Amino acid sequence: MNRFIAAVTAGIMVACAAHAEVTEEDIANDQTITSQIVTNGMGRGLQRFSPLDILNKDNVKNLVPAWAFSLGGEKQRGQETQPLVYDGVMYITGSYSRMYAIDLATGKEIWQYDARLPEGILPCCDVINRGAAIYGNNIYFGTLDARLVALDLKTGKVVWNKKIENYKEGYSYTAAPLIVDGKVMVGNSGGEFGVVGAVYAYDAETGDLVWKRPTIEGNMGMLNGEESTMTGELNATWPGDMWKTGGGATWLGGSYDADTDTLVFGAGNPSPWNSWLRGAGQASGKDDHSGDNLYAATRLGIDPATGEIKWHFQTTPREGWDFDGVNEVVGFTDKDGNKRYGTADRNGFFYVLNREDGAFVRAFPFVQNITWAEGIDETGRPIYVEAARPGDPSKAADGEKGEPVFAVPGFLGGKNWMPMSYSEKTGMFYVPSNEWGMDIWNEPITYKKGAAYLGAGFTIKPLFEDHIGSLKAIDPNTGEIKWDHKNDAPLWGGVMTTAGGLVFFGTPEGKFIALDDESGEELWSFQTGSGIVGQPVTWDQDGEQYVSIVSGWGGAVPLWGGEVAKKVAYLNQGGMVWTFKLPKQLAAAE
Ligand code: CA
After folding, report:
1. How many whole angstroms from 255 Cα to the centroid of ligand 1?
2. Which residues are catalytic?
């Protein structure tokens, strides 16, 4: 080959490679590029809103299956993933840290990756995975042994595989990574094992750690291989050495607000659950904040370049009901044109925050009969009902079991992990909520590495005869619930809205449903054969609109759901991707 041809050939190869790469710009515009889905949340703001309206209220009745794909294997369990779509291929993660690349045209498998999981992993809440992220020529996902893996998009071959934390200490990872400016942002799981929550930024190309930001005060951050700054102020809101095993796991991942260049991650429950072990100011809570346990049960605004904390908003100070503060923080613009965040907390209250500085704007309940707080005051702090706090076991006659209380919501939350959607069309949030309570009591506990670190006992119970699940359409400007769609079993899957006026979600009973975004009326449904705990997506190709959902019952409810778990024990497991399309000839059909 002469030099000229070699140069031309190399040029073509570079051009081809460049064409296939997913760029920062592709990721930044994922919410508007309708032919692709390369991020969790269908855009880093996590609105899960598609501008597509090929499929709409009039023609959704003509939506039909295009193909289905089985995840296979004897071990099925919960499938909580959100599919990604890029360049003719769908990428999904599965239970037990598996990933699949599927041909979009035929539904045939292109490659499958199975992480080799060691004995002794400690996932708290089923062996699930919530999705991946695409950047460059790689796809990234976390594994149950607390590792972050980069795979080649085309082949599924491992590019790099890095340890986030030690799984033997109770760490794992299940959330979808978030890519910002060439860095892979992830969190950790393990808040029930006394881990320390953190947000990590890895170089997407090399897998090297760029920075780490622990969520619990007293712990040191890292930047470029050296210690950076301490999180918070040592012992300001934690007694003694409790901050070393203080929880605050960042297990649901984060969002990114491009307008303010801010990462937002939530931190889970403080460890242990028994709040009496975590500080002096807890008895009053009103004026003495020394037992607040920052930054557990808190949303954190973080600088994506350095990992420094820009602001924090704690939803449940001196938390004692497992009200993890991890729920997704979704950027929107309110009716007056203000930049806001909306977040529906596990504690039963929906919060609106200022996107500039995380400052509290308003809060309102989104589930009924909340017992632990009368409301939220003008500073954003809960107005506690002290009698609804599980009692101190050290004050019990036997010193073993504190006074039990019945608390609403139950510890699985007014809303758990399952992501809500914000519709740019209606200006409303569509929140998958659950109405349930629990008996809860505190017990003595001491920390032991790799063992559950709770100091509490509990049983989840239904509140109402006719439903636990309730998908609610909520006006964030007023807190008004416009309509709700009740479901017998607890809702455990994600929600998606579209410019076509549709709200898609699935139920544990297996139904994949499209509702009218204004009335809540059911317009279409399809029985997928197993419970849905996954997250719907939509995209278009050659003028036709597609919708996908992964079906496969599991997650925390069957494992932790007490009386509710017995109630839904009849539900069958599975593991199937369903892809639907509106055939061109039916798009205009009546
Ligand atoms: Ca928790």
Report:
1. 20
2. 322
